[in-house]
């Protein structure tokens, strides 16, 4: 039995468009509250991926990718009953 030989291809243009992906790091110093959104515009066509790191312990953060250029924050109060917002957060984005 022989396996067919395949050519390596770059299909990234299907997923991220014609631009090279860019890594962007944002530091959000103001309070980020539940249901706040981050909307990107300009020379970006899609948020490919994202990672958040909270800088304080007042809330747990989850982020929903609600459209190609919009992220929505979902904040939950921590177990000790503090408020459900953050005073600072780092957000890493891979953009196309």
Structural write-up:
It is a single chain. With 96 residues, the chain is mostly beta strands. The protein has one domain. The protein contains 1 helix and 8 strands; from the N terminus they run αββββββββ. It has one helix at residues 12-16, and strands at 22-28, 32-33, 37-39, 47-54, 59-67, 70-77, 85-86, 89-95. β5 (59-67) and β6 form a beta hairpin.
Summarize the helices and strands and which ones pair or pack.
Blueprint: H1 12-16, E1 22-28, E2 32-33, E3 37-39, E4 47-54, E5 59-67, E6 70-77, E7 85-86, E8 89-95
Antiparallel strand pairs: 1-8, 2-7, 3-6, 4-8, 5-6
What keywords describe this structure?
96 residues; mainly beta; three-stranded antiparallel beta sheet; 1 helix; 8 strands; 5% helix; 48% strand
């Amino acid at each position: 039995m022989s396996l067919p030989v395949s050519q390596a291809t770059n299909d990234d243009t299907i997923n991220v468009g014609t631009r090279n992906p860019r890594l962007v790091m944002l530091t959000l110093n103001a309070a980020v509250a539940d249901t706040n959104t981050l909307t990107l515009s300009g020379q970006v066509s899609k948020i490919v991926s994202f990672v958040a790191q909270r800088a304080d312990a007042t809330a747990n953060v989850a982020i929903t990718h609600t459209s190609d250029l919009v992220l929505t924050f979902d904040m939950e109060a921590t177990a000790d009953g503090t408020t459900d917002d953050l005073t600072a957060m780092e957000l890493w984005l891979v953009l196309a």
